[in-house]
Design brief:
By secondary structure, this protein is of the alpha/beta class. Helix content is 51%, strand content 13%. The protein is built from 23 helices and 16 strands.
């Protein structure tokens, strides 16, 4: 059980450095194993099968970033493979381009189409997104069949020239396998680097909770579009390489069935784990060859294996192993960040004088249908000040925080943050401008360790990876979370989850901190620890807007109190004046209440 002493600063300096990525040998091992295929066989048919496996792997690697990391289900990625294939085929057969010039053109066209499709499509979620992407290959297939003058229609395009390296025409199965493997190696290393980086953590945050990710400064829409475009580019590259091997492409080659097969391969191998996609593609790609002797039973065996796998490991083969954290707090030197200094200052940081206005919200209003959640709310906060927002259940306190943080748009009103009008900005932009928040119910990213959750918060600050890790480690130790740094949220207790969420917000070194019931469910000793932390933050110049029902925490800490009832402010002022207000007593506190 966490004790009060855990909130005290650790002794001595904290030494942090960029840790070695766990399992960084995995890409090299996978590439090495795939490179052994031509060593064991020179059979043209067998190498052709393995070449198709590699081509599918190119698509699945990008699809894993999209689905496994960003959580965006695309059932139409075969369409981007088709775009790359047809672009290369048309440019080489009808425009006289070389295959090497046609391939990047195919990648570009596919990426451009993906960007156009992504902007409206990725605003959808869940089944709606899946259905929208499912329609894309259907439309493309219909377009190809109807445009036989240039696409060949159902008959397809033939006599597509092979790739050449100087005078060497790549018709040998070994040569082409190694060429495709080279592209796969580059794609695998790129995807692995993304997955193990700060961007990988942000994508996982988007997958788990887009609202929480945006509150931590993650540009949700921009990252989703970027990953969608990147995955489409890899798919197009696969299509281009395909047509220069088989020298033929036709409508239906990369239709809905192919798109669904790619998703099945990824899910079977395990989403959100780069090596899981590799295992899924290899296993399901080679399985038909293993079952050639029982062709009639292939569907039964194939379906049974998938059913058993999903039954005992819903997260695929990779789900049998728990993910190891990508970032870990280390003891190596990073330049001597001292815990007592609280946080290393950003390189462009300017001192903020106490008493400077940090946040002003004026006339905030929000209606949900016929219900007015917040009406005419005015809040002003200065550095080194704690303002409490209190009221009975359903008074609109959490809605008010959502309006101020940008999580939901206001129907009316204005929000100014550190002198900047942020009314039209979303939650992620407000977080990057200096606003941090916690939620009524702790919203941590379950697939990330405690330290990685804090790293996401720290990544909002400008600087290198080392700077991000140093800031995250400083907060980790200041709040006494070092012992649970490499555990996952489901492995820590309620108090530690609450404090971790505060740590995530503080790691960004925000000018304004919004706390939504941070003491909910805490013991008396833990509430005292939280109060001590908030006093320290106030002394360091933080402007804090505190929502909580525990008056023993709120009243002694607050410099100013605003009371909401039915979404409207009914009183504000110094804590003692507010407590003695008859309207407040009637609406909320009661005559002898210690809790609201």
């Amino acid at each position: 059980m966490t004790t009060p002493s855990r909130l005290k600063a650790a002794r001595g300096p904290v030494k942090v450095r960029l840790p070695e990525l766990p399992g960084q040998w995995v890409p090299a091992l996978l590439i090495g194993l795939l490179a052994l295929v031509p060593v064991f066989t020179r059979d043209e048919y067998t190498l052709g099968v393995w070449t198709f496996i590699l081509l599918n792997l190119l698509v699945v690697l990008g699809l894993d970033l999209l689905l496994g990391y960003a959580g965006q289900l695309s059932l139409g990625h075969g369409a981007f493979v088709a775009i790359g294939a047809y672009t290369s085929a048309l440019l080489t057969t009808q425009a006289g381009w070389s295959g090497w010039a046609a391939m990047p053109a195919g990648v570009f066209v596919s990426a451009l189409v993906a960007a156009i499709v992504a902007v409206p499509t990725l605003r959808l979620r869940g089944y709606y997104l899946a259905m929208a992407t499912l329609g894309f290959p259907i439309m493309l297939d219909a377009l190809v069949r109807a445009s036989s003058s240039w696409s060949g229609g159902a008959s397809g395009l033939t006599a597509i020239p092979r790739l050449q390296l100087g005078d060497l025409v790549l018709r040998d199965a070994v040569h082409y396998y190694l060429l495709v493997l080279a592209f796969v190696a580059l794609a695998l290393c790129a995807c692995w680097a993304i997955a193990q980086s700060r961007m990988g953590l942000r994508l996982r945050a988007i997958h788990a909770d887009e609202t929480a990710a945006a509150a931590r400064g993650v540009p949700v829409v921009r990252l989703k579009v970027a990953v969608f475009v990147f995955s489409a580019a890899l798919a197009a590259l696969s299509g281009s390489l395909y047509v220069h091997q088989v020298q033929f492409v036709a409508a239906g080659t990369f239709g809905v069935q192919y798109s669904l097969m790619l998703v099945v391969m990824l899910v079977a191998g395990g989403t959100g784990r780069v090596w899981g996609g590799v295992v899924g593609v290899v296993a399901l790609g080679w399985l038909p060859e293993l079952l050639r002797g029982a062709a009639a039973w292939q569907p039964v065996i194939f379906g049974s294996l998938l059913a058993v796998l999903m039954l005992f490991s819903p997260h695929g083969i990779a789900g049998l192993l728990r993910r190891r954290p990508s970032f870990r707090p280390d003891e190596a030197d990073s330049g001597g960040v001292v815990v007592g200094d609280w946080l290393p200052p950003p390189t462009d940081a300017q001192p903020v004088p106490l008493g400077q206005e940090m946040l002003r919200a004026q006339g905030l209003c929000k209606r949900f249908g016929g219900v007015t959640a917040v009406s005419g709310l005015d809040v002003s906060m200065r550095s080194g000040q704690i303002v409490a927002l209190i009221g009975p259940n359903g008074a609109g306190k959490s809605t008010a925080l959502a309006l101020i943080s940008g999580a939901i748009p206001a129907d009316a009103g204005q929000v100014t943050l550190v002198g900047r009008d942020c009314t039209v900005l979303g939650a992620d932009a407000r977080a990057r401008a200096g606003l941090g928040r916690t939620f009524q119910h702790a919203r941590l990213i379950p697939s990330l360790s405690v330290f990685e959750n804090i790293v996401i918060g720290a990544s909002v600050r400008a600087g290198s990876v080392d700077d991000t890790l140093a800031a995250a480690r400083a907060v980790l130790d200041k709040l006494g979370l070092a012992e649970v740094a490499q555990r996952f949220p489901d492995q820590i207790n309620h108090y530690e989850r609450r404090i971790t969420e505060v740590a995530v917000a503080l790691a960004a070194d925000p000018a304004v901190l919004l706390l939504d019931e941070p003491a909910a469910g805490l013991s008396t000793a833990e509430v005292q620890n939280l109060a001590q932390l908030l006093r320290q933050l106030r002394e360091q110049g933080k402007a804090i807007l505190l929502v909580d029902h525990i008056m023993a925490l709120v009243l002694p800490l607050s410099d100013h109190v605003v009371v909401l009832d039915g979404g409207q402010p009914i009183a504000q002022g110094k804590p003692q004046d507010v407590v003695n207000d008859a309207r407040v007593r009637a609406a909320y506190l009661g005559r002898a209440s210690a809790h609201a």
